Amino acid sequence: MAKANKKIRLATAWLGGCSGCHMSFLDLDELLIDLAEQVEIVYGPLVDAKKFPKDVDLCLVEGAVTNVENLELARQIRSNSKLVISFGDCAVTGNVTSMRNRIPVKDLLTAVYHEAQAPIGAESLKVLPALLKKALPLHQVITVDVYLPGCPPDPERIAATLTALLEGREVNLEPQMRTFG
Amino acid sequence: MPVITLTINDELVSARTGQSILEATRDHGIQIPTLCHLDGLSTRGGCRLCLVEVAGSSRLLPACTTEATEGMVVTTHNDKIDRYRKMILELTFAERNHTCAVCVSNEHCELQTLAAELGMDHVRYDYLNPELDMDTSHERFGVDHNRCLLCLRCVRVCDEVEGAHTWDVKGRGINSRVITDLNCPWGQSESCTECGKCVEVCPTGALFDKGVAVGEMKKEARFLRRILDGREKNQWRR
Known about the structure:
The complex is a heterodimer. Chain A has a single domain, classed as NADH:ubiquinone oxidoreductase-like, 20kDa subunit (Rossmann fold, 3-Layer(aba) Sandwich). By secondary structure, chain A is an alpha/beta fold. Chain A has helices at about 20-25, 30-40, 70-80, 90-95, 105-115, 155-165, and strands spanning about 10-15, 40-45, 55-60, 65, 80-85, 130-135, 145-150. In chain A, the strands form 2 sheets. In chain A, strands 2-1-3-5-7 form a 5-stranded parallel beta sheet, with helices on both faces. In chain A, strands 4-6 form a two-stranded antiparallel ribbon. Chain B has 2 domains: about 5-75, Roll (Ubiquitin-like (UB roll)); about 85-230, 2-Layer Sandwich (Alpha-Beta Plaits), CATH 3.30.70. Helix content of chain B is about 25%, strand content about 15%. Chain B contains 6 helices and 10 strands. A 5-stranded mixed beta sheet of chain B has the order 2-1-5-3-4, sandwiched between helices. Chain B has a 3-stranded antiparallel beta sheet with strand order 6-7-10. In chain B, strand 6 (about 135) and strand 7 (about 140-145) form a beta hairpin. The longest helix of chain B is centred in the middle third of the chain and has 17 residues, at about 80-95. Chain B is globular and about 55 Å long. Chain B starts with a strand and ends in a 6-residue tail after the last helix. At the A-B interface, helix 4 of A face helix 3 of B.
């Protein structure tokens, strides 16, 4: 009995993206209250957890895999989550994050950290995680179970996807709810 | 008019001699996805989305360029065909930089709509991320090769309807690009009449009106039917 009442462990992750997908998640508004009764958010920008926990049921992953830190987290997510959801266009396609892919990383860093007049300069490169050669969609790095497209996915899509998953159904969004962009 | 009989999706249907499989199926209310095809323009068979199964042929055949013949047995939808269509869309997305979220045609794009309709929810292939440029030298229009899928509707409408033949193609295969005149900037083209037909028939955000922001480029290709009916049925003669 105690097991049946156990809350579903939901994690969210923010890789190479703008956090717009997480904003859209918060736009679920009153549905968040219903959701709070069914799930416990165990990791992500919305809660204070330093390490990706074990035994996660669902993980929404926003953003493309663009640096070594993203890559490491993506692997941790996969080894500790039952279902991984590519959450939004950057995770699904690379989207805006991958627009840098045609520029060599060295040129990119030179332009942004060495040549640009910016408050953050070249010294930060010592501590920032190294960029991968290309920003990659999540499924090119780990196995993904569900794709939730949109930039950002609007709350209706998120609601439809989460409701289906929480009820143990297969996610089957209507065509107009699964467009990119 | 000579009539033929063929089988489409296990149903006997009649068609006119000379009709393509695509025309015959559409006459019977069966929808086959298309991208390079546009009613009123010549057929090209370039996008391959209209591939169908024809009994006796080991390969799938494009419905738009294959003539319907007596006794033909055609299947328009099954798992294999659906799989191929999805694959074609994935390859199209992987070949250039279709970043829907920041495209002028976001939410009004035929490629984007088809991907959603056919259930292409991700691309299994490596994105090529080619280095492609834009030409905004024309006063009113722009071309963004990142979004072009080489359907060549622009080439056909310019040649066949406007009669200017400003657009053509350079290069081969993956290096193909649509060009204006002899590959001069669009703004310097002497043949372009600035009619804008190419922009209106373009299925994606590759051709656009200058000044539109993300998602603002809405296109309307219905003018084509009006012009062609007027021309073919002599509607403009007094």
